[in-house]
Amino acid sequence: MTNTICKTFSLVFGLSIIVAMVLSSVQAVVFNHSFYTSLYDKLNLAQVENISQQDLEESIFMMTDYVEGKRDDLNGEITWRGKKQPTFNTKEIRHMKDVRDLWLKAKLVMQVAWGLVIASLVILIACDRRQALFDLMLGFKNGLICIAVVLVFFGFWWLIDFTGFWTWFHTIVFPGNTDWLLNPATDFMIVICPEQMFSTMVFQIAMRFILSLGGLGLILYMLSKIRHDRQDLEEVNSSFKSK
């Protein structure tokens, strides 16, 4: 029974920590204001779109703060291409409400996943302290195997046809809803969220996630090596004492 519990929570740990790391990476990149300012400088977007740098930055910060739940509305005003207007129109606001709802659900999943990581860690240590590290490594490896095929598939899709990937993603997360289809001639939101922004964002999220996985894998490996060396030393000392 104990062995079954250990195997179960080993897998729970592996899957949960991967989900938690993915969503944490998303959060770290998407809601980082400096990500947008550096990208806009690189694209020279303010000059290209005939808008002030202040209006440009305040608009994207308003949008990300709204999605993150730090503000309750998208009411603002900008001067775009020589014309004063509300920052976002009705269609854009409806779309961002959908995005906000989606993120708040994803954030809840992330919090639950981190909770399962901690719970699994505690249960595995309680089951067998000497075996817990091995179970953690096994769960981490199995979790990677489960998610690897998905990541490789979408990674190649992103590299080969990002537009197709991004369109598919929106049709899945916003089924039966076309509010995400914006017109750059009339919808300011698509101007401050160009395709290059999303492709760069996905790349940075992927790199952060991969580095996090690598760091965790290295930590678990080093701990297991220390544990193994300690066991070898204990066995050697035990053999000397028996003689």
In terms of topology, how is this protein built?
Elements: H1 2-30, H2 33-43, H3 45-48, H4 53-68, E1 77-80, E2 83-86, H5 90-127, H6 129-160, H7 162-173, H8 188-192, H9 195-242
* Cross-sheet strand order for the largest sheet: 1-2
Largest sheet: 2 strands, antiparallel
**What overall geometry do the principal axes of the alpha carbons give?**
elongated
Question: Separation of termini?
Answer: 38 Å
Low-confidence stretches: none
Amount of helix: over 70%
Protein model, in words:
This protein is mostly helical. The protein is 80% helix and 3% strand. The protein has nine helices and two strands. The protein has a two-stranded antiparallel ribbon. The longest helix has 48 residues, at 195-242.
Annotation keywords:
2 strands; two-stranded antiparallel sheet; 3% strand; mainly alpha; 9 helices; 243 residues
What's this, in brief?
It contains nine helices and two strands; from the N terminus they run H-H-H-H-E-E-H-H-H-H-H. It has helices at 2-30, 33-43, 45-48, 53-68, 90-127, 129-160, 162-173, 188-192, 195-242; strands at residues 77-80, 83-86.
